[in-house]
Every structure is written in C-alpha cells, then in structure tokens.
C-alpha cells in the first residue's frame, strides 16, 4: 500500500464516503492511508449505521453488531495509521460464544474450548463427537478458500467467478449450510447448533450457501470478543483515526443524489441543495437503496427497478432494547433461544413471509462483560427476533407492542423471571425502522440475501457496474453482511480503487470543495 505525502490536504484527490457504518468507516481509513482527502457523510446525528448507539435512562444500548470476530481486520485499520488498537480499545473474550437454549430448557454452551465442546456433544449424541471433528475439518477447508483467499477479492467479471468454480464445487458450495451440517452431524438438535450462524448475517440456513460454514472455524481460530464500552467504542475509535488522517465526518448530512459527469461519479448533491465535488464516491448505503434512490435512473442498466424488485432480500428484525432495575446474573452475554420449530419458522420468515406466533430469539446481555453499560445493580439487554421484511404486509404500528409484550412474557417464563416488573427503560427497532431510519430496502436488515445465486459476482459489485468511480462497501455488496464481511468489503477497495497518486498523474481531478 502506498501513502501519498502532500504539502496541502487540498492537493490530495477527494473521496466522499456515503454512510458511516463499519464498512464506510473502514473504507475511509483505507482511503486516507492511500493518500486521499476523505469526507464521510452521515445523515443521522452520530456515526455507526446499524452500529448506532442508543443512550437513555443511564443505559447504553448498542444498536446492531454485538458479535465481534476476526479482530485482526479491525487491528489492521489502526496499524494503517501507525497505531495499536489495543492502546485505545479494550477487547474482552466472551465465553461461551453463545448459550443455545432449546425450547424444552436444555442448554448447549457453544465455545472455543475443544474438550468442553466434545463433552457437550457427547451428552447429546456420542457418535457425533467424531462427526463434529470431521465437520470442523471441512469448515477449515472452506475457511481457507472462502475467507483467506476470496473475502477481499473483487468479483468484477464472470471470469473471476469461473476461476473459483472448481474449488467451490470441491468444497460443496452448492449445498446449503444446513445440508452440509446434516451430512456430518446426525442429532437434530446439534444440527441446529451448528447451522444457525447464517441468521447472524441475514441468511436462512436452509437456503444460504454452505460457504458460510466457515464461520465455525473462524470462531474457533480467533474467538468471539466484545469491546469494553460497547461496539460504539469501535465506531468512535475509527472516527478518531479518520480525523487523525485529516479526514472529516459530517453528521446530519443527507445525500439526495450522486452527480455524474461523463459517465463517472463526480460528487453528490445533498438534500440541503449543497453540491460536493469528489474524485471518487464510496457508498456504504444499502445497495438497493443506493441504486433505487441515489443513482439517476438513466445510468442504471443492470440494477433497474425491476431487477431490484426481483432480487431476494434478507429477513428483517424486531429488536427490543431494554434495561432492568435488577441484574440477571445467570444470563450469558449471548443467548440463542430456539423456539419449538426450526425449519418451519424459517420458511414462514423467508419464504411465506408471514409473522408467526412462535419465534426464536437472540438475547444480548452486554453487562455480563461490561457492567458500566447500565446503572449500578441494573442490566442492559437487547432481544432480537428474526421477522419477515416488509413484503409480508405486517402492520407494525398495530403489532409492535403486542409482539414486544409476547417476547417479554416468553423471557419471563423461561430465563428472566419477573421481567415484566423489572423493565425501566425501553426502545424498539422494527422493520419500519430499518426502512425509515436505516434506509434498508423493504426493511431488510442485512440487504441482499446470501444465497449462492446472489454471492460473489452475482452480488452488487464493489466497483459499480453502472458508473465509473462509484464503489460499494457494506452488507449489500461482496462478500456480505456481518462485521468481518463489511470490513472485508472495504479491503476489496484496495484492489479496485486507483491510488491517489495515479489520479494526480492522470490529471483527472475534481475541484477541491
């Protein structure tokens, strides 16, 4: 990587980044290190995108990503700025990674200790101990190709896809996650334990390509972490890196349209009417929203409105953030509460798009690791229920409180006794919020669904197919959702964005603004 030194920041080519989620901020840091003058535009009142932080009643609620894996992808960003992440971010390992609770109350503590994992698997089905080792070996092989070789590779042409096809066939990428797990694991409950991971990145285990089974080895290799102060501290840390490079973050600044000159992105026009010129534009917005609303229709040849409508999108989420006036010390940092149905519920969410009466939940208790996120003697939580995106037609104005109360009762009846009387702070994010606050098309929480026919080359490209010098990062482009995915999407830009010095040499510069 080359770093351009100039005597004046305005002499540097200007990069605009739309959106300040993990992908956008990581892209900004990498561009700054490559000699660009960077401006990040964020429509909300704080950086973070889905990693927005809600602060109320003395509680701190991380809005979105709470599972941090592959921490080296974050450490790289600090290193690009000549710093050590450990000097400013206190990352703590979380164990168990997840406590999986079945509907009848039986528990499986999913963790990094190999011997403890074998003991727990043996309790469910002794034969699956050896099966699990074979599955993990397969996960490692998929990881070595899918993550180490391909996660930060651009897939700008069909030839890129054809080159990897033989390896993908050998690794059985044509299978779904559940299908590959079931090929090794025989106990149905353990199949659920080792196949739920796609739900963390917006995929249905029965539809998502088995490439995503690499997560099992990724977590075994690096573990699961949580930053003290919450994931918002990572966002703030990245903002400080950008500002330290001479970059700028503009909050409460909404982009209305990307401007185009001679077939290339030339900047943006804001809702306020202000126009900002740029040499390149990077979008961290939802990819479908970008093409539907920010790119002028006359430039869209592939991502037309018809194409966007026909694309499959992830499920949405119902997220209830709440604080309690007592502590629930028996609740783990991450808990997966599986409902009475597995495949049937997922079919309701992804295929039939109906709001079912039963649910499975992810419960986050960050105060298990960092008690300072709540007042003394209290706990902070969020509970997340996968639900259909807005094509379901669900009237969330009518359903919102009923659904929250049903989740509250379920938690009270299972692992949080007396919860109804303990809640002292509450906030809800539902599919309408994903659409209106986070500008996610159809309220889909993770953008384009990660099925095989929408992976790699078949996702919206990191280098836009429509306009020169427009680039995409985030969940809706390659390689996909999840913190490692969106950080890797920013890393892809290293291979598709021209170096700042190259732009200067070409003499194709936008005027400084």
Automatic annotation (TrEMBL):
Pathway(s) the chain acts in: Carotenoid biosynthesis
A biological-process GO annotation: carotenoid biosynthetic process
Domain Amine oxidase: 23-491
InterPro entries for the chain: Amino_oxidase, Carotenoid/retinoid_OxRdtase, FAD/NAD-bd_sf
One Pfam family this sequence matches: Amino_oxidase
Superkingdom per UniProt: Bacteria
Sample GO molecular function, one term: oxidoreductase activity, acting on the CH-CH group of donors
Keywords: Carotenoid biosynthesis, FAD, Flavoprotein, Oxidoreductase
SUPFAM superfamilies recorded: FAD/NAD(P)-binding domain (SSF51905)
Cofactor: FAD
Family: Belongs to the carotenoid/retinoid oxidoreductase family.
The protein, known as: Phytoene dehydrogenase
Originating species: Enhygromyxa salina
């Amino acid at each position: 990587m080359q770093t351009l030194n100039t005597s004046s920041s305005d002499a540097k080519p200007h990069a605009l980044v739309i959106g300040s989620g993990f992908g956008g901020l990581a892209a900004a840091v990498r561009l700054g290190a490559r000699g660009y003058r960077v401006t990040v535009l964020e429509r909300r009142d704080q950086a973070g995108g889905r990693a927005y932080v809600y602060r109320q009643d003395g509680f701190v609620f991380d809005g979105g990503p709470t599972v941090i894996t592959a921490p080296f992808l974050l450490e790289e960003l600090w290193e690009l700025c000549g710093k050590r992440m450990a000097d400013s971010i206190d990352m703590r390992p979380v164990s168990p990674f997840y406590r999986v609770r079945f509907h009848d109350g039986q528990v499986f503590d999913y963790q990094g200790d190999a011997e403890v994992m074998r003991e727990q698997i043996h309790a469910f089905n002794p034969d699956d101990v050896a099966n699990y080792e074979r599955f993990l070996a397969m996960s490692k092989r998929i990881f070595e190709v899918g993550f180490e070789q391909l996660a930060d590779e651009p897939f700008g042409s069909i030839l890129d896809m054809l080159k990897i096809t033989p390896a993908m066939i050998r690794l059985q990428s044509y299978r779904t996650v559940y299908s590959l797990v079931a090929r090794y694991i025989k106990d149905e409950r353990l199949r659920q334990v080792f196949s739920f991971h796609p739900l963390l990145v917006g995929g249905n285990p029965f539809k998502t390509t088995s490439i995503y089974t690499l997560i099992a080895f990724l977590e075994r290799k690096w573990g699961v972490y949580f930053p003290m102060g919450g994931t918002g501290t990572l966002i703030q840390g990245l903002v400080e890196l950008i500002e330290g490079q001479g970059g700028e973050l503009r909050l409460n600044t909404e982009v209305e349209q990307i401007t185009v000159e001679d077939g290339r992105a030339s900047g943006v026009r804001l809702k306020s009417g202000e126009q900002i010129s740029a040499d390149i534009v990077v979008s961290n917005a939802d990819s479908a929203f970008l093409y539907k609303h920010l790119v002028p229709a006359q430039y869209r040849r592939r991502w037309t409105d018809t194409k966007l409508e026909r694309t499959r999108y992830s499920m949405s989420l119902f997220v209830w953030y709440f604080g309690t006036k007592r502590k629930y010390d028996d609740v783990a940092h991450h808990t997966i509460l599986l409902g009475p149905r597995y495949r049937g519920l997922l079919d309701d969410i992804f295929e039939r798009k109906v709001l079912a009466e039963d649910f499975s939940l992810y419960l986050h208790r960050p105060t298990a690791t960092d008690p300072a996120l709540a007042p003394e003697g209290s706990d902070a939580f969020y509970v997340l229920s996968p639900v259909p995106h807005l094509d379901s037609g669900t009237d969330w104005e009518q359903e919102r409180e009923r659904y929250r109360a049903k989740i509250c009762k379920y938690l009270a009846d299972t692992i949080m006794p007396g919860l109804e009387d303990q809640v002292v702070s509450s906030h809800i994010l539902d599919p309408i919020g994903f659409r209106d606050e986070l500008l996610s098309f159809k309220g889909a929480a993770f953008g384009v669904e990660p099925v095989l026919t929408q992976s790699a080359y078949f996702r919206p490209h990191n280098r836009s197919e429509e306009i020169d010098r427009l680039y995409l990062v985030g969940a809706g482009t390659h390689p996909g959702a999840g913190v490692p995915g969106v950080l890797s999407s920013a890393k892809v830009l290293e291979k598709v964005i021209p170096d700042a010095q190259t732009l200067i040499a070409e003499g194709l510069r936008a005027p400084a603004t």
